[in-house]
Specification:
CATH superfamily of one domain: Glutaredoxin
Strand content: 15-25%
Shape: elongated
Strand order of the largest sheet: 5-4-3-6-7
CATH class of one domain: Alpha Beta
Number of helices: 5
Low-confidence stretches: none
Structural class: alpha/beta
Order of helices and strands: HEEEHEHEHEEH
Helix content: 25-40%
CATH architecture of one domain: 3-Layer(aba) Sandwich
């Protein structure tokens, strides 16, 4: 116990520090401010990373998938589509691949494998990891450059009119991607 004339104990002395929350300042306000700052920083970083990505009308995306089927993004007008750029060499992409595969089971999804080898190598990777989403190979990164993708994973949600409704770079959750697809389908 200390009296008012005694200075506070120095840090690390084992003495308890006085509470920072005064009678008119609840602790939850401090937590709320900290959470708001973290969210703001994360949003700012996401915005910064997504600056070079394509915006507005979705760039053309067409080619043969791994099964030899012609895929063209324009053929999927009318409903939202998830376009997901990934690499077999990317550890963050590996964290997302289960989510993308689950979304592909009931939504329109087209993925682009950036610099992940030839079609046979990508096919082996998909088979080894039990993934079934459709893939366009991009061995030299030409498709990625056309979309402004400089790092993976990068995900685009295309609305039914062929416009880019949402973009994200880095780790995204299945719930977050599904929400973006839903929002793109309910928009004006």
């Amino acid at each position: 116990m200390r009296n008012e004339d005694t200075p506070p104990a120095p840090p690390g002395s084992g003495q308890p520090r006085p509470s920072q929350a005064g009678p008119g300042r609840p602790r939850w306000r401090g937590w709320l401010v900290n959470i708001a700052l973290v969210v703001l920083v994360i949003a700012g970083v996401d915005w910064w990373k997504s600056r070079p990505l394509a915006r507005g009308e979705a760039p053309p995306l067409a080619g043969l998938d791994l099964q030899g089927q012609w895929r063209d993004l324009r053929d999927w007008r009318g409903e939202p589509v998830l376009v997901h750029f990934w690499g077999s060499w990317c550890p963050i992409c590996r964290l997302m691949e289960g989510s993308v595969d689950a979304i592909a089971a009931d939504q329109r999804v087209l993925t682009v494998a950036l610099q992940s080898g030839e079609a046979a190598e990508i096919g082996t990777y998909l088979q080894d990891n039990r993934l079934a989403f459709p893939v366009l190979p991009d061995p030299d990164g030409a498709i990625a450059r056309h979309w402004g993708v400089q790092g993976v994973p990068a995900s685009f949600v295309i609305d039914g009119e062929g416009r880019i409704a949402a973009v994200t770079v880095g780790l995204s959750s299945e719930l977050g991607l599904r929400f973006r697809l839903w929002a793109a389908g309910t928009g004006p």
